[in-house]
Amino acid sequence: MMNRDSQREFQVLGKPTPKKDAPQKAAGRAEFADDISMPGMLHGKLLRSPHPHARIVAIDASLALALPGVRAVITGRDFPGVRYGNLPQTRDYLPLAIDTVRYIGEEVAAVAAVDEDTAEEALDLIRVEYEVLPAVFDPEEAMKQGAPQLHGQSPGNVSAHTESHFGDVEAAFAQADYVREDVFETQPVKQGMLEPHACVGLWDGFGKATLWSCKMSPYAVWRQLAMGLDIKPGDIRVVQTYVGGGFSGGKQEAMPMDFCALMLSKKTGRPVKLVHTMEEVLIIGHMRHPMKIWLRTGTTKDGRILAQHVKLLANGGAYSSIGGFSIFLAGAMINLPYRVPNMKFEADRVYTNNGFCGALRGHTVVQMCFARDSQLEKIAEDLAIDPLEIRRRNAIQDGDVTANGFRINTFAFDECITRVAEMSGWYNKKGKLPKYRGIGFGCGAHLSGARLMGHSASTAEMRMLEDGTVHLTTGSTDVGQGVETVMSMIAAEVLGVTVDDVHYLKVDSAATPLDPGTFGSRVTLFTGNAVKQAAEDICRQLAEVAGERMGVDPRDLMFFRHEIINRKDEKQRCSLKEIVRWGMFQQGRIFSGRGSYGYSEEKIDFRTGHGNLSPAYNPTACAVEVEVDPETGRVTVVGLWGADDSGTPLNPLAVKGQVIGAAVMSIGHALYENLIRVDGKVMNPSLRDYKMPQATDLPKLADFKHSNVITWEPEGPFGAKEAGQGAGTGVIAALANAVYDATGVRLTSLPMTPEHILFGMKRLQAQNRGQ
Amino acid sequence: MTYLKRLPRFEYLGPQSLAEVCGMIAGTSRDEVMLLAGGTDAILQMRRRERVPRRVIGLKGVAELDFVREQADGGLAIGAMTTLRTLLASPVVGRRYDLLRETAAQIGGNELRNVATVGGNIAGALPCADMSPALMTLGARIRLSSGRGDRWLPLEEFFPEFGRTVAADDEVLAEISLPPPASGGAGTYLKFHDRHSMDMTVVGVSAYVVRDERSRTFGDLRLAYANGAPTVFRAKRAEAVLRGRALTEEGLEEAAETACAESSPRTSWRANGEYRLELIRALTKSAIRQAWEKASSRQEARP
Ligand SMILES: Cc1cc2nc3c(=O)[nH]c(=O)nc-3n(C[C@H](O)[C@H](O)[C@H](O)COP(=O)(O)OP(=O)(O)OC[C@H]3O[C@@H](n4cnc5c(N)ncnc54)[C@H](O)[C@@H]3O)c2cc1C
What we know:
Chain A is an alpha+beta fold. Chain A contains 20 helices and 28 strands.
């Protein structure tokens, strides 16, 4: 096992490296799916349900088909009727609804026409006869007897249920000196990527279907397309385009638009493009689960957590997406970043007639951390313990095994807390700030990729070109987070070349190796390990040739700055290119490396929740300072200081971008964003009214500090762990705690609107007067 | 509310003069014809099918509606087609009507201000429009033109009810005219919204104070509100509370209470009426105080 001391000086890694694709993007040369144009290409549009719940009695498309310029209209009946989805037990999607629609915005039919306008005009001409059914929007209502049922196979509308129990919660509560219960509620939040979903489908006359699309996880899409179209995966090809932000959701799955692009192409023999409008992005499913979290915690007098019992109700919307795993993850992550020796978790994800929910950066960890770290602050207050001290007392340490079986290698949580205290000036501020100014602390944790039941192994392939540069392929995509750059850096480090010598190709299911793709913070660790191995594989092949030519034992050779050098006699060296050409031209060699990372020697038991879900875990801590306007209740975030143990940051520049980005998204979640729905209808489907934070809503960069607590994670490639999600998990609680510090108002539901804060302050004033 | 669709089919006309515009709309109804200024609201209305006109008359080519002019009497004339960007860049506005500059700067973002017009903001008759309260407190009068001729009326008489104006179907809003700024006068527009910028108004308060230098009292006070009621309106009883009085905390409280009593904000998914009332109370006080302070410091700064 490598440790910090044996870490050698890096050639490429560890240096802030700008993203390789930045020039293309800045120059407007990056080709996104919507930029694709093909000869004869048609444009598709989707007809959506105006009803939250209805039976489709009949669809008459004759008028639409008669409109000049319209080339095809399809409905659910044009597909084989096979349901698809993420988890085998919750396959409930159809490419287009067949007999029932379950939310406003659900896709009912699709049109292909010579241009977008004609396609849209045709939508108005499709006559759909609906029989409106009673609808239910609230999960508690949906579980009641007599509530409208969304899916026949799910009585009580429970789309997924999960439970786990470790230790003995009842006994621990009986022993506890202190017990409290709270309920927290969270709202629906959208991914908010700037590039709407887009795709081009081409189904040639010989049974082969190709989809070009901005997918984060092309292989997941590939498999789902095969499922829903009921054809062999081998007959489908998925080609990834540039991805303009993902944050999970529709870019991780096959969407109705993808199926329709292909089916419309099959019908017309032409390529068909579909692009969502931002309004469509906002009204369709794919969002963070709104949750009601009931949390009971028992501690000793000195604030040590003895037990936590969580009941969670998630409003899943009309379909499952990845929801079964979403609630499982929420339960698993109760075990981090604090020691919880006894824990019990019971969760239901419920179908309602709303847009459906799934994954979004931070997944369900974000909601759990909001609840847990808000409550922990109350416990600290009740027990008169310093809020940082109570966190230290419960902090998970290196080498711990959690109640549910997470095996912790590196976890520099204590140091994260200490750094944040220093950077934020915590002890000079806490309790000492002027009126209506407050500071709050929040912590969280994340994992570096989850081992799932289905496909979780990563692979990489690398091919050396005759000029000494390489083509690197994996199944992981750059969605703006910098995968292209960091994977190139890993390869370059091993091969002794520069980042630009590595060409990181986009995923193409016909050419790149199988890999689940980008989600769950898995890429740097899983794919990174595979890339490292692939590069080492090529080095071995090159060393063989070089050793022979130089008369040196290949094991003594090292790769440094485009040269292959004898470690024992550094004067003995030859250029990489020379060896490559010699091997290729004279010996007919193909230098091609392969690597994989599976980490599946042990299985997670998804029924009990026991098992080591990820190779590595990372803690985070942050402090947020706010100012509250006592007249209006409006919050201004004046500073944010975060520290994260992302292992060894391979590209510190990208890590910085990721942690700040994650924190910003959580500020949006905490204060501004809310997909407002009235009887299932989205009221704010524009980026004017769905309020993502803007630069003016964030602290100035000078007051937005981040520190990497550097550890050497043995499971990570070159000691690395994830950086994209963990940093957002503690922010919401920190904000809630800061608002409390500033005003005395404790908010347990999100977003924390000025209205809630103002009326909270007024209630407090009234109480104080009453006393 | 319907979701956005493509634009409906319509005939587009691009007149070059006000007379032509008047000719085109003479004898038509609001259902048939729609005027298009910057289009930042109008396009959305059509895409939501709230309006499905047969004809759209684009005003972009009517150069005579695009001006900001100092008047002989020291007042200001603003053409209806003046964009917010032009208004912001106008030296005379910066120098003498900083309330307008302050207000326009708070509307939307740069992209929006480049195309959105003053006329469109007013004529849309939305209760959340930000220019109207500021213009009302500055004593704006507006000119409506039609084939029948021109008529002038005070802006505060323009909005009879939510989303409507008193303009007849054949009338165009052509010009907004402001009297010269009063000596000792200063105003401020406070706009509350959830985000810190680029956001629609939850409540907006414009306060214009004319400070009597000798008596150190409110010589005049004008208050107007966005989203305080179904239309932008002036709170005349609240204004009267302070006239002739000095600035005191009690006076401010009283004026704010009166303004609340005069308001009837609605509850929508954007905000609750109850919360808007709280904002009206708080912002009325701050706006008056800030306008008062501006007026005082200007008087003191004078040699
Ligand atoms: C992203 C975004 C942000 C916004 N932010 C704000 C904000 O912060 N504050 C705010 O007040 N508004 C805001 N708006 C609303 C809108 O942009 C403004 O009200 C704008 O000033 C309207 O002007 P326009 O020139 O675009 O008018 P248009 O959209 O062209 O017209 C609006 C209405 O007025 C009518 N009309 C236009 N000109 C005349 C005329 N000369 N005579 C008679 N009728 C006429 C039109 O027929 C139409 O009914 C925002 C809109 C968007 C899309």
